[in-house]
UniProtKB/TrEMBL annotation:
Domain (Thioredoxin) ranges: 6-167
Gene3D superfamilies tied to this protein: Glutaredoxin (3.40.30.10)
Protein name (database record): Alkyl hydroperoxide reductase C
EC number: 1.11.1.26
Active site: C57
Reaction(s) the record says it catalyses: a hydroperoxide + NADH + H(+) = an alcohol + NAD(+) + H2O
Length: 185
C-alpha cells in the first residue's frame, strides 16, 4: 500500500532525529526537530535524497549548500535528509570533496518513520524519493515537489517558490523576486 504524500496545507510531522552536522571530532552529530525553525520564526526547506554514495544526490546536496546563504537571507533553515544512518552521512561527507563543507544538517531517518509519514518512501527500494518541502514558521507545508529517483531537482526553482510564498501575494508564472505581483481587480 503506497503512502500518500503530505500536501500543501498539512502540518509537517513531528520528528526528532539525529543528524550529521560537522566533521569535527566529538561534534559530528546533533538532534534536529520539526520545531527548531519555529523557535526563530523561520521557514524551513527540507529536501530528501534516496541514498548516500550515489551519483545524482551529491550534485543536489552541493547545489543546496552553494545556495545556503540565499536560504539564510530569506530567514529559512535548510535541512537535508535520507534514510541512511548518521554514520553513513559522516563517511560520505569525509569521502566526497563537495560534501565536506556542508552548512546544514543531514538527517538520518534510519527507521524510515519520517519518510513514511511524509509519504515519500519508495516501497521497492525502501528509500526516500527526491522530495522537497517548504514549511512556514507555523509548521504548515506550503510547497511540495517530488521527483523520481533518477532526476535531480532545480534549487533555483525552490528559491523562486520560497520567494513567492514569502511575498504573500499573487505571483504569476515565471515570477522572479523583485518583479511585480498580480493585483486583483
Amino acid at each position: 500500500m503506497q503512502n500518500r504524500v503530505l500536501n500543501v496545507g498539512s502540518r509537517f510531522p513531528e520528528f526528532e532525529k539525529l543528524a550529521t552536522v560537522s566533521l569535527e571530532k566529538g561534534k559530528e552529530f546533533e538532534t534536529v526537530t520539526n520545531t527548531d525553525h519555529q523557535k526563530e520564526d523561520q521557514w524551513m526547506v527540507m529536501f530528501w535524497w534516496p541514498k548516500d554514495f550515489t551519483f545524482v544526490c551529491p550534485t543536489e546536496i552541493a547545489e543546496f549548500n552553494n545556495n545556503f546563504d540565499e536560504f539564510r537571507d530569506r530567514d529559512t533553515v535548510l535541512v537535508g535528509a535520507s534514510t541512511d544512518s548518521e554514520f553513513v552521512h559522516l563517511a560520505w561527507r569525509k569521502d566526497h570533496e563537495d560534501l565536506r563543507g556542508l552548512k546544514f544538517p543531514m538527517i538520518a531517518d534510519t527507521n524510515k518513520s519520517l519518510a513514511s509519514e511524509l509519504g515519500i518512501l519508495e516501497e521497492k527500494e525502501g528509500v526516500a524519493y527526491r522530495a522537497t518541502f517548504i514549511v512556514d514558521p507555523q509548521g504548515i507545508i506550503r510547497w511540495v515537489s517530488v521527483n523520481d529517483l533518477n532526476v535531480g531537482r532545480n534549487v533555483e526553482e525552490v528559491i523562486r517558490v520560497l520567494d513567492g510564498l514569502q511575498t504573500d501575494e499573487l505571483c504569476p508564472c515565471n515570477w522572479q523576486k523583485g518583479e511585480e505581483t498580480l493585483q486583483p481587480a
